[in-house]
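Practice problem: predict the structure.
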Amino acid sequence: MGAPVLLDPLACSELTVFPFDPYVLVEYEDGARVWSTRGELPRPCGGPLPSGTSFPSVAADGSAAVLELDLRGGRSRTWAPPWDRPAAWTPMGERPERLASLEVCMLDGRRLLVVGGLDGSASVWDLDAGEHRLFPAANDHSRPVERVVTGGPEQKPLAVLGTSGWGWDDFTMSTLEFFFAVVYDVALGREVFQVPCLDVDLVYALGTAGA
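Answer:
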Protein backbone atom coordinates (compact mmCIF):
# COMPACT_ATOMS: atom_id res chain seq x y z
CA MET A 1 0.00 0.00 0.00
CA GLY A 2 2.48 2.67 -1.12
CA ALA A 3 1.74 6.24 -2.11
CA PRO A 4 1.15 5.47 -5.83
CA VAL A 5 -1.75 3.18 -4.81
CA LEU A 6 -3.73 6.16 -3.54
CA LEU A 7 -3.14 8.05 -6.77
CA ASP A 8 -4.40 5.19 -8.94
CA PRO A 9 -8.23 5.01 -8.69
CA LEU A 10 -8.19 1.47 -10.12
CA ALA A 11 -6.08 0.15 -7.23
CA CYS A 12 -8.65 0.87 -4.51
CA SER A 13 -12.32 0.07 -4.10
CA GLU A 14 -13.48 3.21 -2.26
CA LEU A 15 -12.23 6.59 -1.03
CA THR A 16 -13.86 8.48 1.85
CA VAL A 17 -12.74 11.98 2.75
CA PHE A 18 -12.81 13.14 6.37
CA PRO A 19 -14.86 16.33 6.76
CA PHE A 20 -12.74 19.36 7.66
CA ASP A 21 -9.57 17.27 8.11
CA PRO A 22 -6.75 16.41 5.65
CA TYR A 23 -7.27 12.64 5.77
CA VAL A 24 -8.70 10.04 3.41
CA LEU A 25 -9.85 6.52 4.28
CA VAL A 26 -8.90 4.26 1.37
CA GLU A 27 -10.40 0.79 1.06
CA TYR A 28 -8.66 -2.00 -0.83
CA GLU A 29 -9.65 -5.60 -1.48
CA ASP A 30 -7.57 -6.81 1.47
CA GLY A 31 -8.08 -3.96 3.97
CA ALA A 32 -8.23 -0.21 4.48
CA ARG A 33 -5.78 2.53 5.44
CA VAL A 34 -5.85 6.19 6.43
CA TRP A 35 -3.77 8.57 4.33
CA SER A 36 -2.77 12.12 5.17
CA THR A 37 -3.17 14.62 2.34
CA ARG A 38 -0.95 17.22 4.00
CA GLY A 39 2.12 18.08 1.95
CA GLU A 40 2.95 17.54 -1.69
CA LEU A 41 2.46 13.75 -1.62
CA PRO A 42 0.01 11.62 0.41
CA ARG A 43 1.47 9.43 3.13
CA PRO A 44 0.00 6.49 5.08
CA CYS A 45 -0.98 6.96 8.73
CA GLY A 46 -0.77 3.95 11.01
CA GLY A 47 -1.33 0.34 10.01
CA PRO A 48 -3.97 -1.41 7.92
CA LEU A 49 -7.59 -1.50 9.09
CA PRO A 50 -10.36 -4.00 8.30
CA SER A 51 -12.11 -3.11 5.05
CA GLY A 52 -15.88 -2.70 5.19
CA THR A 53 -16.02 -2.16 8.97
CA SER A 54 -13.93 1.02 9.29
CA PHE A 55 -15.63 4.41 8.99
CA PRO A 56 -14.59 8.07 9.27
CA SER A 57 -15.76 9.44 12.60
CA VAL A 58 -14.80 11.94 15.30
CA ALA A 59 -12.80 11.45 18.48
CA ALA A 60 -13.90 12.61 21.95
CA ASP A 61 -12.12 15.95 21.41
CA GLY A 62 -13.84 16.51 18.06
CA SER A 63 -10.82 15.67 15.89
CA ALA A 64 -10.79 13.23 13.01
CA ALA A 65 -10.97 9.55 13.90
CA VAL A 66 -11.76 6.15 12.45
CA LEU A 67 -14.51 4.02 13.94
CA GLU A 68 -13.65 0.31 13.74
CA LEU A 69 -16.36 -2.30 14.24
CA ASP A 70 -15.90 -5.88 15.36
CA LEU A 71 -19.29 -7.25 14.35
CA ARG A 72 -18.52 -10.81 15.37
CA GLY A 73 -17.53 -9.70 18.87
CA GLY A 74 -20.21 -6.98 19.14
CA ARG A 75 -17.78 -4.17 20.02
CA SER A 76 -16.30 -0.98 18.61
CA ARG A 77 -13.28 1.27 19.08
CA THR A 78 -11.84 4.45 17.62
CA TRP A 79 -8.50 5.31 16.08
CA ALA A 80 -7.45 8.95 16.26
CA PRO A 81 -4.36 10.82 15.06
CA PRO A 82 -1.52 9.98 15.01
CA TRP A 83 -3.29 6.69 14.17
CA ASP A 84 -0.76 4.47 15.93
CA ARG A 85 -2.79 3.39 18.96
CA PRO A 86 -6.56 2.76 19.10
CA ALA A 87 -8.80 3.37 22.07
CA ALA A 88 -10.02 0.39 24.10
CA TRP A 89 -12.80 -1.80 22.73
CA THR A 90 -16.26 -0.95 24.03
CA PRO A 91 -19.32 -3.24 23.75
CA MET A 92 -22.02 -2.25 21.28
CA GLY A 93 -24.77 -3.60 23.52
CA GLU A 94 -26.10 -5.97 20.88
CA ARG A 95 -24.52 -7.62 17.87
CA PRO A 96 -25.88 -6.89 14.38
CA GLU A 97 -26.85 -10.15 12.75
CA ARG A 98 -27.65 -11.04 9.14
CA LEU A 99 -26.59 -7.61 7.93
CA ALA A 100 -26.37 -6.68 4.26
CA SER A 101 -25.11 -3.09 4.53
CA LEU A 102 -24.20 -0.53 7.16
CA GLU A 103 -23.15 3.09 7.56
CA VAL A 104 -22.23 5.44 10.42
CA CYS A 105 -23.72 8.85 11.15
CA MET A 106 -23.64 11.37 14.00
CA LEU A 107 -26.61 12.56 16.05
CA ASP A 108 -25.98 15.26 18.66
CA GLY A 109 -22.42 14.05 19.20
CA ARG A 110 -23.34 10.35 19.39
CA ARG A 111 -22.16 7.74 16.89
CA LEU A 112 -24.99 5.75 15.33
CA LEU A 113 -24.65 2.66 13.18
CA VAL A 114 -27.45 2.31 10.61
CA VAL A 115 -27.83 -1.32 9.52
CA GLY A 116 -29.70 -2.81 6.56
CA GLY A 117 -30.57 -6.46 7.06
CA LEU A 118 -30.60 -9.40 4.71
CA ASP A 119 -34.27 -9.87 5.65
CA GLY A 120 -35.25 -6.33 4.64
CA SER A 121 -35.12 -4.93 8.17
CA ALA A 122 -33.57 -1.57 9.07
CA SER A 123 -32.21 -0.65 12.48
CA VAL A 124 -29.86 1.70 14.28
CA TRP A 125 -27.33 1.02 17.04
CA ASP A 126 -26.30 3.83 19.39
CA LEU A 127 -22.65 2.79 19.77
CA ASP A 128 -21.97 5.09 22.72
CA ALA A 129 -25.08 4.13 24.72
CA GLY A 130 -25.21 0.49 23.58
CA GLU A 131 -28.87 0.83 22.59
CA HIS A 132 -30.59 -0.74 19.58
CA ARG A 133 -33.91 0.05 17.92
CA LEU A 134 -35.66 -1.06 14.77
CA PHE A 135 -36.93 1.21 12.03
CA PRO A 136 -40.21 0.41 10.30
CA ALA A 137 -39.63 -2.36 7.75
CA ALA A 138 -37.87 -1.14 4.62
CA ASN A 139 -40.03 -3.40 2.46
CA ASP A 140 -42.75 -6.03 2.69
CA HIS A 141 -40.98 -8.74 0.73
CA SER A 142 -38.04 -9.74 2.97
CA ARG A 143 -35.58 -8.53 0.35
CA PRO A 144 -32.06 -7.47 1.49
CA VAL A 145 -31.25 -3.81 2.07
CA GLU A 146 -28.43 -3.58 -0.47
CA ARG A 147 -27.19 -0.05 0.25
CA VAL A 148 -27.15 2.41 3.14
CA VAL A 149 -26.16 6.08 2.76
CA THR A 150 -26.33 8.65 5.57
CA GLY A 151 -26.07 12.42 5.50
CA GLY A 152 -27.59 15.70 6.53
CA PRO A 153 -26.99 17.89 9.61
CA GLU A 154 -25.92 16.25 12.85
CA GLN A 155 -29.14 17.46 14.53
CA LYS A 156 -31.33 15.74 11.90
CA PRO A 157 -29.45 13.05 9.96
CA LEU A 158 -31.16 11.05 7.24
CA ALA A 159 -30.54 7.45 6.21
CA VAL A 160 -31.26 6.38 2.63
CA LEU A 161 -31.66 2.61 2.22
CA GLY A 162 -31.69 0.91 -1.16
CA THR A 163 -33.87 -2.20 -1.33
CA SER A 164 -36.29 -3.99 -3.65
CA GLY A 165 -39.61 -5.77 -3.88
CA TRP A 166 -41.52 -7.93 -6.34
CA GLY A 167 -44.38 -6.46 -8.31
CA TRP A 168 -46.46 -6.86 -11.44
CA ASP A 169 -45.23 -5.01 -14.55
CA ASP A 170 -47.95 -4.17 -17.06
CA PHE A 171 -45.47 -3.59 -19.89
CA THR A 172 -43.84 -7.04 -19.73
CA MET A 173 -46.95 -8.71 -18.28
CA SER A 174 -44.79 -10.46 -15.70
CA THR A 175 -43.61 -10.20 -12.11
CA LEU A 176 -40.37 -8.18 -11.82
CA GLU A 177 -38.05 -7.03 -9.07
CA PHE A 178 -38.43 -3.28 -8.52
CA PHE A 179 -35.79 -1.25 -6.67
CA PHE A 180 -36.54 1.75 -4.51
CA ALA A 181 -34.96 4.01 -1.92
CA VAL A 182 -36.42 4.40 1.58
CA VAL A 183 -35.51 7.59 3.44
CA TYR A 184 -35.56 7.51 7.25
CA ASP A 185 -35.36 10.28 9.83
CA VAL A 186 -32.69 8.79 12.11
CA ALA A 187 -33.51 10.99 15.11
CA LEU A 188 -37.23 10.11 15.08
CA GLY A 189 -36.76 6.55 13.80
CA ARG A 190 -39.47 6.80 11.17
CA GLU A 191 -39.81 6.60 7.42
CA VAL A 192 -39.98 9.95 5.61
CA PHE A 193 -40.71 8.84 2.04
CA GLN A 194 -39.86 6.29 -0.68
CA VAL A 195 -38.55 6.84 -4.19
CA PRO A 196 -38.93 4.16 -6.91
CA CYS A 197 -35.85 3.51 -9.06
CA LEU A 198 -34.83 1.24 -11.89
CA ASP A 199 -31.89 -0.55 -10.27
CA VAL A 200 -29.81 -0.65 -7.12
CA ASP A 201 -27.00 1.48 -8.59
CA LEU A 202 -29.48 4.27 -9.24
CA VAL A 203 -30.75 3.90 -5.67
CA TYR A 204 -27.20 4.34 -4.45
CA ALA A 205 -26.62 7.39 -6.65
CA LEU A 206 -29.90 8.90 -5.49
CA GLY A 207 -29.01 8.27 -1.87
CA THR A 208 -25.58 9.84 -2.26
CA ALA A 209 -27.04 12.97 -3.84
CA GLY A 210 -30.05 13.20 -1.56
CA ALA A 211 -28.16 12.66 1.68
